[in-house]
Amino acid sequence: MRSPFERFSRARIVDAIGEGWGLDGVELRYVPLGAGAYHWAATTGSHERYFVTCDDLDTKPWLGSDRDSVFHGLQGAYATASQLRSAGLEFVVAPIATIAGEVAERIDERHSLSVFEHIEGQPGQWGESLETVGRADVVTMLARLHQTPAGGHTIAERPFVVPDRAGLEEALADLHRPWTGGPLSEAVRRELVAHADAVSSLFEELDRFAAATTSSGARLVVTHGEPHPGNLIRTGDGLAMVDWDTVALATPERDLWMLADDESLIADYERLTGLAVDRRALTAHRLMWSLTDLAAYSLQLRNEHEAGADSDRALAAVRSILGGEQPTPYGFVSPPPCPG
């Protein structure tokens, strides 16, 4: 999150780190990154460095329908990351277990805490070019991930659906009256009113793609879900990948759409894995990304929220999506999809 965490005191977080992970004398520095979680750089009294994440269980509908199921899903996702790391995928940044052996610890009804090793390197940013990040490194990393057996029983299967689609459809049916959740509720409602037909058309397009690309016989692999440069860190030993709360079994295109504008990268992936990539599915996953963001940000602003950087970012994202802008994780824009 860009906005500072103010739901409870920093001392409470420090106490939770000490009790859960046995780390003493912790000093925290807030790191304004991402969405759906709060982050701190942590230094112990013995100068050990860690990265602390506080996940907001109200912002992760892909993991469950309520706070308890979201926390259970988050535990499964982080446990999967730990298994992948143990399986030899050194680029996976997995959580450090608590004294009790847990990958995440609930600190109140709405929030959970996890601790990660500090990664020394240069973090990437959304929109950064593949040339900067490392074209071959990204393709090789995804190929290795997709060829690694799932192992264990913690990894979830991700269906080809937009999380919280029902919530967005409910909101679209309530556009005739003012929204009072927070300072930007009316602004987002007006945007949706002006583009209601476009939203319906986008969902119709997604449903057509889903019908054409979803097959019961499709091969499922372990996918990260968000392998964009903002989740990569360039280190002296190569790329490291963070934010594994989105890990799930899915078709490879769930990850590969972010590289789909460079056909040579897709060809390299097919050569490395022996898997055939469905180009239509790449387009479908790009569209689903846009609609998933539209649902998340619209509902964030329809509901109770405060003014600040995160709310401003949400409104800007809604306007961008409704304006027809394509998501550009690696700085390039795909051509329009083929009809049908």
Q: Could you walk me through the main structural features you see in this protein, from its secondary elements to its overall organization?
A:
The chain has helices spanning 10-21, 67-86, 130-133, 135-146, 165-172, 185-194, 196-213, 253-256, 263-273, 279-302, 309-322, and strands spanning 27-31, 37-43, 49-56, 95-96, 105-106, 111-117, 122-123, 221-223, 232-235, 238-241, 248-250. It is globular, with a radius of gyration of 20 Å. By secondary structure, it is α+β, with helices and mostly antiparallel strands. It is built from eleven helices and eleven strands. The model is unreliable at 334-340 (pLDDT under 50).
Write the CATH fold name of the largest domain: Aminoglycoside 3'-phosphotransferase, Chain: A, domain 2
Distance between the termini: 38 Å
Helix/sheet category: alpha+beta
Identify the CATH architecture of the largest domain.
Alpha-Beta Complex
Helical residue percent? 40-55%
Q: If helices are DSSP runs of H or I spanning 4 or more residues, what is the number of helices?
A: 11
What is the succession of H and E elements? HEEEHEEEEHHHHHEEEEHHHH
Share of residues in strands? 5-15%
Indicate the radius of gyration in whole angstroms.
20 Å
Query: How many domains comprise the coordinates?
Result: 2
Q: What global shape is seen?
A: globular
CATH class (first level) name of the largest domain:
Alpha Beta
Tell me the major beta sheet.
6 strands, antiparallel
**Low-confidence runs:** 334-340
